[in-house]
Amino acid sequence: MSWKQTLGKPGEEFIIGKRWLKKHVPKKDRVSKANHKEAFPGAIYDLGEQFVPSVNKRQHIWICMETGKIITKAPSVLAIPKPKPRKEKPVVAVKPTKKVAPVKKVVKPKVEAKPEPVLEPVVTPATKPTPKFTKETSIQEVKGIGKAAFDKLTIAGIQTIDDLLGKHSQEIATLIGRKSDAQIKTWQDNALAMLD
Questions:
Q1: What is the domain range of residue 186?
Q2: What is the pLDDT of residues 57-92, one digit of tens each?
Q3: Half-sphere exposure (Cβ direction) of 190: Cα atoms closer than 13 Å
Q4: What is this structure's pTM?
Q5: Which of 40, 43, 171, 185 would be 65's cystine partner, CB 3.0–4.6 Å?
Q6: For residue 105, is it within any domain?
Q7: In total, how many domains does the chain have?
Q8: DSSP three-state, residue 45
């Protein structure tokens, strides 16, 4: 619903409406509907001192956004009620009426502690841990020997760590078709380390 109101002195009149209010009145001078309990729906705009033709004088006025009704009396939303002062109750210290007897300390008689029997530690002779691997361990357990090398060594008759250590590295290299015996020496070193 649109509306129009005329304000200003004769000969200097101007017409206001909803658009004019939104454009010319700063937000700080608007009171939203949620903040007031007036009999006017919508926001209330503070227009300040204006010449009102209906009463033929300047007055401080407010206007309702929805209806365009001019309010000449300050809306109650602008009168901020003062908070009521709180009365604080005086704090009164309460004194005990009964006298409490001091608590006597009970002294327990000292009991002599019996010496505990000294137990001699049982010393077990240190035994060398049995090696996990023996000379009869398969060469498949030796670090560095893969599946292909294991198959070639098995065909050549070398199946245990004892067989691997019992032959010269160059002899084993010839048996499995290798030019160098460097890899075989590494296998033999790894096999020796397993037996230690």
A1: 139-195
A2: 888 888 887 787 888 887 665 554 455 666 767 767
A3: 15
A4: 0.36
A5: 43
A6: no
A7: 2
A8: strand
